[in-house]
């Protein structure tokens, strides 16, 4: 079954590249989620006035990649305690978040986070919200690390082998 989820975990280049390596991911594109401004571009998003977040639209086959496994991967590559930053990426556009149009998918996400939170010393600040909008980023951002293998990435792409 095909499902779509939007993940924000700092700079969208690394998040996209990581998930593109997973079996079960059908497609991905980077963009700006939940913007107050219609059709924002990178520079206006970086200004903070849009309240948009850099996110990756991930279409996946849930028979090959369960939402539970997808979320395990996501939380393995982000710092869920970091508010408005990931790695060296600082600003509200780099906050961590999980978004979907499907509220039942978000219930699964909330259950996963609730279970994960048990026993952790600090609260998880990753936001979980209904997707209001998603605007694809500029062409040069799409599949950036595939086109530029030595480009900046705050994510350890080798962490993919850490999740079963």
UniProtKB/TrEMBL annotation:
The active site is at residue 11. The keyword Transmembrane does not apply. It holds the Pfam family PMSR. Gene3D superfamilies: Peptide methionine sulphoxide reductase MsrA. Belongs to the MsrA Met sulfoxide reductase family. Has an important function as a repair enzyme for proteins that have been inactivated by oxidation. Catalyzes the reversible oxidation-reduction of methionine sulfoxide in proteins to methionine. This is Peptide methionine sulfoxide reductase MsrA. It comes from Helicobacter turcicus. The lineage of its organism: Bacteria, Pseudomonadati, Campylobacterota, Epsilonproteobacteria, Campylobacterales.
